[in-house]
Write a structure and sequence with these properties.
By secondary structure, the protein is of the alpha/beta class. It is built from eleven helices and seven strands. Strand 2, helix 6 and strand 3 form a beta-alpha-beta unit. The structure holds thiamine diphosphate and magnesium ion. Pfam families: E1_dh.
Length: 331
């Protein structure tokens, strides 16, 4: 990964930096709590944590406008929190309770919010990519100026349906940003072992889709790249590819023994590249905040997460009759 960190004094306000700090910290603490609840047996099924990748979604969301859409894979809790979905509703869905976004019937990988324009949560690798182009097709058809963020992983980028989608998105000049979250691994397989060309952002060249790579551990760099991509799409120039280079600290899912990489590799990333620590340092060295103020922010975030965990335990399990609802769309 390029070791590019914003070295010169960034041109951002205190409020903006603090906002990114809070948004990323919320994701981190929420995910840590989800990991604990999973360990306690309160969350069943699959659970893929986003810890380490927080700057990706927070940086990208910083360039969105009301009405823009997002769709992603199963590693989706961060995307939900970053677009403003309620942590209580997300956590209660993880514990399979009535107060969850899918009334406790979807779980970690199957949550949606029409209100926040979040279209899931998809467990089949790569399946959300054509769906994302479809959302963008509707926006183009309706001439509403909206952009769709279609997120997928480095592993998913090797799937055939991605290239069928690139072809159509370019042909029809759809307003879609393909965000490749390159965390260097697809389950236990490293990118080096699985991928012929390491520069995934160039994969759109054959279709005339511009692309660029960005340091996904630097929220400001991600935001700048997101603004550029959004401007491209909104001006009617068609799709754009952003390969965001990032890293996941935890296993692929909660049941991953992580034998495919060394502890030292993970620790080095945590110590040297952590996206939250990066912004914390900018806040402190720029004298935007004191240690005490940041401690108060940490507490505020911890309280929100604890409340969501409490809610997710108190909310009842769905009633038996719910087995028969939400199967077909109402006519
Ligand atoms: C079509 C399909 N094949 C295989 C799987 C099993 N599987 C789940 S996640 C995954 C790896 C995907 O890696 P990547 O796209 O890099 O995303 P990440 O998990 O790193 O976020 C695989 C192979 C699946 N869910 N769907
Ligand atoms: Mg990956």
């Amino acid at each position: 990964m390029a070791a590019r960190r914003t070295t010169k004094k960034p041109n951002v306000s205190k409020e903006e930096l603090l906002g990114y700090y809070k948004d990323m910290l919320l994701i981190r603490r929420f995910e840590e709590k989800a990991g604990q609840l999973y360990g306690m047996g309160l969350i069943g099924g699959f659970c893929h944590l986003y810890i380490g990748q927080e700057a990706v979604v927070v940086g990208l969301e910083a360039a969105t406008e009301e009405g823009d859409k997002r769709i992603t894979s199963y590693r989706d809790h961060g995307h939900m929190l970053a677009c403003g979905m309620d942590p209580k509703g997300v956590m209660a869905e993880l514990t399979g309770r009535e107060g969850g976004y899918s009334k406790g019937k979807g779980g970690s990988m199957h949550m949606f919010s029409k209100e926040k324009h979040f279209y899931g949560g998809h467990g089949i690798v790569g399946a959300q990519v054509p769906l994302g182009a479809g959302l963008a097709f509707a926006d183009k058809y309706n001439e509403n100026g909206r952009v769709t963020f279609t997120y997928f992983g480095d592993g998913a980028a090797n799937q055939g349906q991605v290239y069928e989608t690139f072809n159509m998105a370019a042909l029809w000049q759809l307003p879609v940003i393909f965000v490749i979250e390159n965390n260097q691994y697809a389950m236990g397989t490293s990118q080096q072992r699985s991928t012929s060309s390491q520069e995934i952002y160039k994969r759109g060249e054959a279709f005339g889709i511009p692309g660029e790579a960005v340091d996904g551990m630097d929220v400001l760099a991600v935001k700048a790249a997101s603004e550029k991509a959004v401007a491209h799409c909104r001006s009617g120039k068609g799709p754009y590819i952003l390969e965001v280079k990032t890293y996941r600290y935890r296993g692929h899912s909660m049941s991953d023994p992580a034998k495919y990489r060394t502890r030292e590799e993970v620790q080095k990333m945590r110590d040297e590249r952590d996206p939250i620590e990066g912004v914390r340092q900018l806040l402190l060295t720029g004298k935007h905040a004191t240690e005490e103020e940041l401690k108060a922010v940490d507490k505020e975030i911890k309280d929100i997460v604890n409340e969501s965990a409490e809610f997710s335990k108190q909310s009842p399990e769905p009633a038996l009759e719910e087995l028969w609802t939400d199967i077909y769309a109402e006519a």
